[in-house]
Amino acid sequence: MPASLPQRAPQTASSEAAALATAHDNNAVAPGKIWQVITASSVGTVIEWYDFYIFGSLTPIISTLFFPEGNPVAALLSTLALFATGFVVRPFGAIVFGRLGDLVGRKYTFLLTLLLMGGSTFCIGVVPTYAQIGLSAPLILLVLRLVQGLALGGEYGGAATYVAEHAPDNRRGYYTSFIQTTATVGLFVSIAVIVGTRMAVGDAAFKDWGWRIPFLVSFFLIIASYYIRRRLHESPLFAQMKAQGKTSTSPVRDSFVKPENRRLVLLALFGATMGQGVVWYTGQFYAYFFLQTVLKIDLVPASTILCLALLLGTPFFVYFGGLSDRIGRKRIIMTGLLCAVLFTFPLFYGLHAFAGPITEVTPASVDAAGKAVPAVLKALSPNIPMLTVLVFCLVLFVTMVYGPIAAYLVELFPTKVRYTSLSLPYHVGNGIFGGLVPLIATALVAWAAAQPSGFLREYSIYFGLLYPVVVALICLLIGSAKMKDIRNVRIMD
């Protein structure tokens, strides 16, 4: 556990105030420098999230191009499984790059993760389709998704640690909350680029070749971000510790073998990040997926709904991060989990109600080759304002659980193993529990819909929500009972 303020000799009122100011100023980093650090860290992290999410946003198209024809449900599930592999491998990236960050430094490590993410994303944009190279296409795609997941596993911990180790103690929640906006902003940018590309080239061309453009654009974004990050210096706390020879020689062992630190890792996972992960992916990513695949709302209106909700919700990451400096991290995170448990089902029910009737735009038919062409179903009159309000409520829960989480994790672990220790529970919570939400929820919906009759089949579209709600409830119970509300403590060992 991070140490409390050290004992000081008696001082005059003025000298004690100055000492406290210095203690709360942590590294005595100038405000201008902090904003430079936040900007450089956030820009790179936004781009990495952009790279990661364009794959998920384009899942319906990728499933038709990289898997055999004939079973669209199986192709969709296979593509979601590929998407999920990027999440599953994130904890391994957390260990590999977390160890590197605690041994070598924060700056060097998240420069490396940036290049790996950008390179693999660009390559996805040039991979031939199944029709061109057969099974090699999904296999190459799998390898590139694994590289993406490894890179992202090292990115977040580095960015959050780097910003936190520059921030003053009494405003750590506020400053690190800007890093918390990057996942949402990255998702927003990915959707904006996808929609803009589709509108520019047309629907037919987009499905044929235009879908590659968002992946290829990543190359230019990565180069710009790499240039910005190269100008940064190492974290002052890590640099000081390294100069004093106090860095860990075995961050993985110190993080996960020593009982006192292992207990903190498990508490962070099951009391905070597990629930935060499922709330994030349900409120933002699965909601977007639900609008398109279940409610049959077209890409452009579905994207408009989510983008408006994200624009309205993003400032609340900063609000709740700053509020956690005053009232504590735990109270806000647990409130967000409680809201998600209570209101996820009603909000998704509302999405269904305001999506309007689903109409068969193109009837089922047979093409020139004699193959069956399924009917095209669409929601022709969705209530965009009300749908936006409902998705915004889901996003608001996300901001409550996610806004304070970086500051909480940073303050939980000592400097010499901070990168490794916070990265693993974060990426297990988000990568495993959260990242599997689309796949598990879709599989549960498909299973319930396949039942011969009864309650399960009638309400099958909501059945997938059981997974995130139950996980959030378990995390709420563990976190409420076991988490301690630490905040504004000195984080230098």
UniProtKB/TrEMBL annotation:
Pfam families: Sugar_tr. Gene3D superfamilies: MFS general substrate transporter like domains (1.20.1250.20). Keywords: Cell membrane, Membrane, Transmembrane, Transmembrane helix, Transport. One of its GO terms (molecular function) is transmembrane transporter activity. It is found in: Cell membrane. It comes from the Bacteria. The keyword Disulfide bond does not apply. One of its GO terms (cellular component) is plasma membrane. It is a multi-pass membrane protein. This is MHS family MFS transporter.
